[in-house]
């Protein structure tokens, strides 16, 4: 990478699961570099959702390197996910016409309830999984499938963990790491965030800050997506031999399925 940065630049890995992110430094200058980042990074940058995109370069091997302005700041704490600015930014993302148009032009298929059920069935079959809890969860998803169908689909981040929210020293809030984003019901992001970080008695206020009125239909949709994601995470942990983590999610799934809808 040093070849197109010029002399005096030092490049080192930035960490992360993919190993494709780097920090470039020259004196007091610093850049965040990433190999083959999301192709809609320019739209995210233009809308102020991620730190500013400075340039994009294509290497001879076809890889694309992007450089973003380095932002000094910190990850959000878990308790800060309840704040209105988080709801406001997520609403901005979900209501972005430009972002949705970009996804559609890229040919992204919508993550519909039917597709989720089909994917879970295939995964369970691959694991030869006939556990009663899994079957109970799958039955809930199938029973409620028609009830959760709706027409509004938006760009969802799909990994709203507080570690992906960044507050700059200047007070700017960003949502980073868009590699897993897809077009889906906004209830997917909303459910994962509220169930993970916001006490139930504060949901109405949080949703009002987002711009939605809490309703039985919205609650059902959020619950449905959290159940589906929980089953998916359990299967993923089983894949990687993380049995302790799988048991934790198993307990959570039991709690979810005990809730009546």
Automatic annotation (TrEMBL):
Matches recorded under InterPro entries: Aminoglycoside_PTrfase, CcrZ_PhaseVar_Mediator, Kinase-like_dom_sf
Domain of life: Bacteria
One Pfam family per UniProt: APH
Domain named Aminoglycoside phosphotransferase: residues: 14-211
Xref: Gene3D superfamilies: 3.90.1200.10
SUPFAM superfamilies to which the protein is assigned, alphabetical: Protein kinase-like (PK-like) (SSF56112)
Name of this protein: BH3263 protein
């Amino acid at each position: 990478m040093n070849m197109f940065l010029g002399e005096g630049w030092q490049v080192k890995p930035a960490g992360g699961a993919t190993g494709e992110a780097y920090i470039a430094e020259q004196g007091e200058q610093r850049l965040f570099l990433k190999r083959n980042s999301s192709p809609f990074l320019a739209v995210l940058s233009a809308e102020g959702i991620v730190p500013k995109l400075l340039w994009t370069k294509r290497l001879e091997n076809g890889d694309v390197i992007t450089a973003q302005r380095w932002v000094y700041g910190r990850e959000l704490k878990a308790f800060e996910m309840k704040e209105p600015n988080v709801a406001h930014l997520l609403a901005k993302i979900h209501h972005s016409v430009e972002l949705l148009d970009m996804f559609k032009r890229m040919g992204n298929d919508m993550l519909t309830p039917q597709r989720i059920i089909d994917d879970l069935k295939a995964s369970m079959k691959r694991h030869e999984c006939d556990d009663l809890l899994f079957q109970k969860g799958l039955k809930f998803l199938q029973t409620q499938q028609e009830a959760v169908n709706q027409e509004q689909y938006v760009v969802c981040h799909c990994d709203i963990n507080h570690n992906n929210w960044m507050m700059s020293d200047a007070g700017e809030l960003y949502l980073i790491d868009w590699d897993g984003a897809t077009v889906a019901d906004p209830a997917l992001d909303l459910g994962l965030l509220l169930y993970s970080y916001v006490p139930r008695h504060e949901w109405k206020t949080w949703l009002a800050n987002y711009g939605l009125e809490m309703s039985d239909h919205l609650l059902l949709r959020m619950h449905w997506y959290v159940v589906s994601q929980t089953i998916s995470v359990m299967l993923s942990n089983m894949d990687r031999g993380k049995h302790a983590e799988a048991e934790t999610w198993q307990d959570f799934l039991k709690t979810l399925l005990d809730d009546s809808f």
